[in-house]
Amino acid sequence: MEMVRLLLALQNEGAGGESLLGSIKIAVMPIVKVFTMCALGLLMASKYVDILPASGRKLLNGLVFTLLLPCLIFSQLGQAVTLQKMLDWWFIPMNVVLGSVTGSLIGFVVATIIRPPYPFFKFTIVQIGIGNIGNVPLVLISALCRDQSNPFGDSEKCSKDGTAYISFGQWVGAIILYTYVFNMLAPPPEGTFDIDIESVPLKSAPMGDATLEQIPLLVKEEGVSSTSQNTSKKWEIKDLLTFLYEKLKLKQILQPPIIASILAMTIGAVPFLKRLIFTPDAPLFFFTDSCIILGEAMIPCILLALGGNLIDGPGSSKLGFRTTAAIIFARLVLVPPVGMGIVMLADKLGFLPPDDKMFRFVLLLQHSMPTSVLAGAVANLRGCGRDAAAVLFWVHVFAIFSMAGWIILYLNILF
TM segments (predicted)? Predict the structure, then answer.
């Protein structure tokens, strides 16, 4: 009798009138689809098939981030956004910032407790604090909305709204990645992460001499003749702009997906331009339609590339079992409840659009993702790519289970 009662409870209780088993299916199926395609990418990159070697994956990654992802963002965000909506959606980028701050604080506490091997203290903070706010949420929303029984209603509207919300936060995520993460993952004073701990010197080489050598050069500039002052000022402005460009790392920040987001928001905010490009009967809609077609190829390509990239993941890493396990636990178990608290508090304070469940779902989803793949790309650029690949592999494996659990909880809270 107890078993019958339990089965009846599972059948009758759940999110939005669905049975609990139905809610579990809605939450788990998108993740199963995502990781099935990742597994196929892993198979294609394996030595048994070998049609996605490292060079092929690099090209596929480049195609995704340079063309397919920008096309998806431009077409979906541009059609959905207006100036009023951007004002209403202000909490999305704020949520990304708050998620990075709270995640990094949790990372700092965890790193302080477990004491990762030198020089991976800041690396550990980044791996816990920076989640995937772009490609994985986009893929999950796409897979969830494709199911006709999804609780958000019309599949097309569900997909368009979800993609627009996620895309609207990506530009902030890119700025965080290429400023904060880039600086946090700077190599140690020894110049490399491949350090034998026994050989680490007590102090790094002093930098004062290099600074002192530059002082006479600055003094010499004071003796510039008055006849060349105008030319000097022009060069000073040019040098200042060059310095700001390099210091702010604008080249890294202004990646194609971010440029696509800015263009979509700019055009979408101007009614005349929106009618000219994003309206189905507009004279330039052929461009948007082409972007829609190309954008649809982003999901399978990025999943195949992600699966292929993970083939080198479980290799030898200097982090050790304890640090890797702590990163996985903190990122997938400790960070989401804090994010849920942020979103619920924002809802109570009236910061979120009323009666928009997809908006809230995307905000919650941003806190529940595995470590950012782009953070792994930055780590590769800074010389700790192998260790980042190991973390990414195991975090994504365990994220199959954690994301399913969090999505079930979110659906039950929202519906």
Answer: 20-46, 58-77, 89-111, 123-144, 164-182, 253-273, 285-311, 323-346, 358-379, 391-413
| Burial state string for 113-149 with b = 16 or more CB within 10 A and e = fewer than 16 | ebebbebbbbbbbbbbbbbbbbbbbbbbbbbbbebee
Q: Give the angle subtended at the CA of 81 by the CAs of 94 and 144, to the nearest 5°.
A: 80
At 328 the three-state DSSP class reads helix
**27: burial class by Cβ within 10 Å (0-12, 13-18, 19+)?**
buried
User: For 124-134, how does the pLDDT look when each residue is reduced to its tens digit (9 = 90+)?
Assistant: 999 999 998 87
Q: In degrees to the nearest 10, what's the CA dihedral of 20, 25, 28, 34?
A: -160
Structural domain of 304: 23-191+249-414
Q: Is the residue at 222 inside a domain?
A: no
d(CA 179, CA 176): 5
Can you give the pLDDT at residue 343? Answer: 95
Q: Give the pair of three-digit tokens for residue 155.
A: 């599949």
What type of residue is 245?
Answer: Y
Each as own residue / partner, the long-range contacts of residues 192-197 (CB below 8 Å, 24 or more positions apart, any chain) are 192/383, 193/119, 193/120, 193/123, 193/318, 193/383, 193/384, 193/387, 194/318, 195/118, 195/119, 197/117, 197/118
Q: One-letter amino acid identity for 270?
A: V
Domain count, the chain: 1
What pLDDT is recorded for position 240?
66
Question: CATH number, domain at 290?
Answer: 1.20.1530.20
Q: How does DSSP classify residue 227?
A: G
User: In which residue are the tokens 């890493």 written?
Assistant: 317
pTM for this entry: 0.73
Cα(276)–Cα(269) distance, integer angstroms: 12
Question: Does residue 211 lie in a domain region?
Answer: no
Decide if 213 is inside a domain: no
Residue with the two structure tokens 């055009």 = 267
pLDDT at 99: 94
**pLDDT for the residue 178:** 74
pLDDT of residue 160: 84
CB 11 within 8 A of CB 19: yes
* Domain annotation covers residue 198: no
pLDDT for 19: 53
